[in-house]
Amino acid sequence: xxxxxxxxxxxxxxxFRSKKEDIDFWKSISNSEIELIDYGPWLSQNDLFKLxxxxxxxxxxxxxxxxxNCCLEASFMDCLPITSPNNGxxxxxxxxxxxxxxxxxEDPYNFGYLIEKMINKETDEIQILNNLIKNxxxxxxxxxxxxxxxxxxFK
Length: 155
Hints:
Layout: E1 11-15, H1 20-29, E2 34-38, H2 45-53, E3 57-60, H3 69-76, E4 80-83, H4 95-101, H5 112-119, H6 123-140, H7 143-153
Parallel strand pairs: 1-2, 3-4
C-alpha cells in the first residue's frame, strides 16, 4: 500500500479494539506518509462516532458477523466500510458495490488492493458510494430499526 501513496498525501490509520497481530500488521505497512494511531482496547461509542465522522474508510475484518452495527454506523457517518465477505453487511450491497468494498472469498483478509483502490478514488465517488450504501440500509432495515440506529448515532 505504502508504495502507492504520494509523499504529499497525509494518511492516518486509526486502530481500536485490536490484537497485537493486527497492530503489527498495520505497523508493517506504515511509513513516513502513514501515521498509525492506536486507540487501545477501549473506545467509547461517542468517540467511535467522532472517529468515523473524521475518517474516509472503516476497515472491518470479520470471521463471522451478522449485519455489523459498526459498518452501519460508519456508513451513516460518511465513513466507507470495507469488510470481508463473512460479514452480513455484504447482503445490503448491490453486486457493483461489493467489488469495491468486500474482499475476495478466497483471500478474505487481504484488504490492501481495496484500500489502494479507495485511496485513488475522488471524494465525489466516495460520497456516491456512501449515499448508495445508506439507501441500501434504508431498504434493508424496517423504519423502526433505521430510526434506532440514527438516534443512537445522532443523539
